[in-house]
Amino acid sequence: MKRILRVYYQINQKHTAMRKTLLIILSLFISYSTVQAQSSWFVIPSNTLKVLYNVDYYDANNGLLVGEAGKVMRTTNAGASWYATNFNFDYYLLDLCYASANVVYVSGLWGKVCKSTDGGESWMDVNQSATNNTLYGISFVNENTGYAAGQYGTIIKTTDGGQSWVRQFGPTWWDLFDCHFFDANNGLTCGSGGRIQRTTNGGADWFDAPSPYKFEDYWDMDFAGNTGYIVGSNGILIKSTNAGISWSPKTSDIGVQLNGVAAINSSHAVAVGNAGTIILSSNGGDSWHFQTNPAFNITLYGVDFNGQGIGTAIGGSGMILRTSNAVGVEPISSNVPDRFTLGQNYPNPFNPSTKIQFNIPKASFVSMKIYDMLGREVENLVNEQLSPGSYEVEWNAKSLQSGVYFYKLSADGFTEVRKMTLVK
User: Fold this and answer.
1) Per-residue pLDDT for 14 more than 70?
2) Which one, 14, 115, 323, 345, has least CB within 10 Å?
3) Model pTM score
4) DSSP three-state, residue 279
5) Mean pLDDT calculated for residue range 363-379
6) Main-chain phi, psi angles of 25, to 5 degrees
């Protein structure tokens, strides 16, 4: 997952951006300070003040993050703790990508690409002077074949594990801030000026893809299967459901620059940005809700999830945040219930958050949707395969008006509906 700070590109914009978002930061502070005790994200000690730019999980337990001045940190316990690895280069590292459990690549300023063959414990420099331009994004489809994209439209490719790189040429000289490849042939880049580029033949040819915004900067992209998101300046969010062939705008209504995004599954995604912004969508990007966290004054640059609902967000001043329930569903017991049940939400009435518990006696695809009095769906809280057990999901109705709402649980032929009341 690519959550990237474009160091030199943004440095001249920093003070302007801060002025533009001052009022937004203050409003976020007011709203966050009233609910910090209910935060779903909490701080993990990093023992560093270096800016952290990108984080990536390989599996449920193993992940890496990178940052300025050659900072590389690793977790082997799902982000509960992180330790510094043996990275001997004083490079600004902006992105990373697992090619396999042991082989990892990182990219950064001055065209640097480094490689690890032991899961991130030690590193070697593998860029053979293909470019001196900053490489903001890197994507590998296997241990040998990968791509990096960056400054001035730079795209480079390797097919021998980084021993050699070939320069590719697309239709733009604008900076490219991220890249993502589905396989050796099909991939995307995104960048400044609302540019999205595609290739279907391994980069031999690149062409512009339709883009909803022509005057915004696209900072980061991420996919879960064919469903993907791009985030950028001024709270821009766009979505694709066909592997990047076409894109549609999704409104976040925040106006704060978004620097990183994680597509968790087809319905859930999390984006992070300036002023400690963390927003969650549980309905495929149709609506987004703030996630409270104790770092409202820290710019966040990257976010990723481990495939089992645990997420890590990183940013300035060595900030590492962790959540175990950002996707909303949290197991509360592994005991197998004897039947499907849907509990009454609590508290009820509520303002603006409430919790709902339910029991699943066997592995099932579970759906829980929220409807208003007119029967219109307002949110899809749960839309995933769950193991047997007891679960709890939290719903935040901050953006909705007072009134009666209904929540419906559907799983393996079972359906139940209950009523709840929002009072503001």
Assistant:
1) no
2) 14
3) 0.73
4) strand
5) 91
6) -60, -45
